């Protein structure tokens, strides 16, 4: 069966990619995982993940990359690292990857993106929003467009809300900060366990050529959520300010829940901690 997915390669075995790879191995897939560091190769090997050291900035790596892409499905799970000031390096990596993909055996691609591609337009955001809600200058949005432009494979883009769980403890995000804006703005968050669960369903159901939003059902206010999260870790809660116009978005997960018949493990962020 040409649409059967048996082999999966995960580009970027970090916060999301590593636990995802472990889950997919448990589910019976043959999983390859990439890392940029030599030290992590043994960790992948010990978890029965075929290890590859791949740096998309190093085009001398092309033979290793092509071997890594001898797979049925590629999951692209490495961020642009905007906060590290490395966004200028991101799109050249995506172009390099796209060229390799077009010459590979990959039939399905799952691109992990973010709801940060939307601006704060003070409304509920669905996958059918017009382009004026999108930040067209976002490197992530541009990367989505690059990867989707192919007749060689089918792509699903999965836009996650704010990532929480594992090493990402939300109580530490704003603890002790003052003059934090937008206290009443709703949060759009998703737990690591749901990230892994949703990806598993997309792959097992082979739902491609799609766009999905993935954020928890409920959207407590920033003040309510981050105050409680800090207190759960016995940290000083943030202090909010009411100054400035309201700016927010509410990410709808209705399409994902309906099409995948997915029920969130953590539908309410107030139960993340």
UniProtKB/TrEMBL annotation:
GO terms for cellular component: cytoplasm. InterPro entries: NAD(P)-bd_dom_sf, NAD(P)-dependent_oxidoreduct. GO terms for molecular function: aldehyde dehydrogenase (NAD+) activity. This is Protein YeeZ. It comes from Adhaeribacter pallidiroseus. The lineage of its organism: Bacteria, Pseudomonadati, Bacteroidota, Cytophagia, Cytophagales.
